[in-house]
Design a protein that fits this description.
alpha+beta; about 30% helix
Length: about 230
């Protein structure tokens, strides 16, 4: 499968690690979290509600990841005051001169990386470290038929494919943002090869059957997955 036209990967100076311009209205930004908590605090302005949320976090790692997302918003021309959540906890951005209506944003972080996707389309994103641990929990989010097929691959490819599948299901869950969705029973990611860098997935629950386009990239033993609702 070819990459969609217009997709460009650009590695920039740290800590803004990567920018992906999917198209004119969709952008993905990745941050490598190298700064101290104090450095991050000195470079962002937070609204009171956000500051209170930050203060409740007990882990400095989580605090730094939380603040790095605000750095990414600033890199995109937004800030913490533009970010709001609907009644179901799904994030959005207030429009600016490039957008006329509510702007979709999805947020993720894992270890020392964070990422956001900003779009006029309905989108979700997830980043995961590629770890052998995922093999032990595979039966929790992949059905037995698909799991048996994946086990035919060598261990490294197996881990990479499981990581893509988990990331795709996380991204879809963020798009739908509904209780009761089972990664194993309700979301099916269609077969793919790592070199494809894309696939499709279907969410089927109750009277809903929705297809999604899935794209993924790998870097430094991490997998970044982003999804579009079709």
């Amino acid at each position: 499968m070819p990459f969609p036209s217009g997709l460009e990967n650009q590695v920039t100076k740290m800590p803004l690690y990567k920018t992906i311009n999917y198209n004119s209205t969709t952008k993905i930004l990745v941050w490598e979290i190298t700064e101290s908590l104090e450095e991050l605090l000195g470079n962002v302005v937070l609204k009171e509600k956000t500051q209170l949320r930050l203060n409740r976090m007990k882990s400095e790692i989580h605090q730094r990841a939380f603040l790095s997302v605000r750095m990414l918003l600033q890199e995109s021309g937004f800030n913490d005051f533009d970010l709001y959540y609907d009644e179901f906890g799904k994030p959005y951005l207030n429009p600016n001169n490039r957008h006329t209506g509510p702007v979709e944003v999805s947020i993720t972080h894992s270890h020392h990386f964070s990422a956001i996707i900003i779009s006029d389309e309905t989108v979700g994103i997830d980043i995961e470290m590629q770890r052998e641990k995922i093999i032990r929990i595979a039966d929790k989010f992949v059905n037995s038929t698909e799991l048996n097929r994946l086990k035919s691959f060598d261990t490294q490819d197996y881990i990479k494919k499981l990581t893509v599948k988990w990331g795709a299901k996380e991204a879809i869950f963020k798009i739908r943002n509904e209780k009761g969705i089972s990664f194993k029973d309700h979301i099916q990611v269609n077969p793919f090869e790592i070199q494809d860098k894309q696939t499709t997935a279907i969410l089927e629950i109750k009277n809903t059957k929705q297809q999604f386009s899935i794209y993924f990239i790998e870097f430094e033993n991490f997998t970044l997955v982003y999804a579009f609702e079709n």
